[in-house]
Design a protein that fits this description.
about 25% strand; six-stranded mixed β-sheet; globular; disordered C terminus
């Protein structure tokens, strides 16, 4: 298993069985890459809105796309919108993602630097957590590149 870090557009990376991203526990996907997930998978967003009432930091909301057969992992990295992600929540949600991936035979997961954008964490602190998870499943971390397709609604 491996951890690969690249720059580009997460949604354009070929060969991914699943995509993951950080979410809050308030049912809001209003900016950044979460907004892109909301726009691409409105059915997932509706299900997340219902589920978020019961979510706590560290939880995982997994959703299977019936069209692409790809898993979407919504990692509850923070209680509310804004810069309040915690390393404990990242560790727990990423761990739950890996457990799900292993049982569902998911081989390769793509994700941004989870918790490090709007969530406010440092990649230096989060990277070891993701590297540990990559011992059990291949993970491709994609740092959005300004040369990639524009992320409408994203904040810089």
């Amino acid at each position: 298993m491996s951890l690969t870090e690249i720059r580009g557009d997460l949604f354009a990376v070929p060969g991914l069985d699943a995509l993951a991203h950080g979410v809050n526990c308030r049912g809001v996907m209003g900016a950044g890459i979460a907004l892109q997930f909301k726009r691409r998978w409105p059915a997932m967003f509706r299900a997340y809105g219902v589920r978020s009432q019961y979510m706590r930091p560290g939880d995982l909301f997994d959703w299977h796309d019936p069209v692409t057969h790809r898993w979407i992992y919504n990692l509850a990295t923070q209680a509310s919108p804004g810069p309040c992600a915690t390393l404990d929540a990242v560790r727990l949600s990423v761990g739950r993602m890996v457990e799900h991936a292993v049982t569902r035979h998911v081989r390769r997961i793509g994700m941004p630097r989870v918790g490090c954008g709007i969530g406010g964490l440092s990649w230096e602190d989060v990277q070891p957590i993701v590297a540990q998870a990559a011992q059990r499943v291949d993970i491709v971390v994609v740092e959005w590149a300004k040369s990639a397709a524009p992320m409408k609604g994203a904040t810089s």
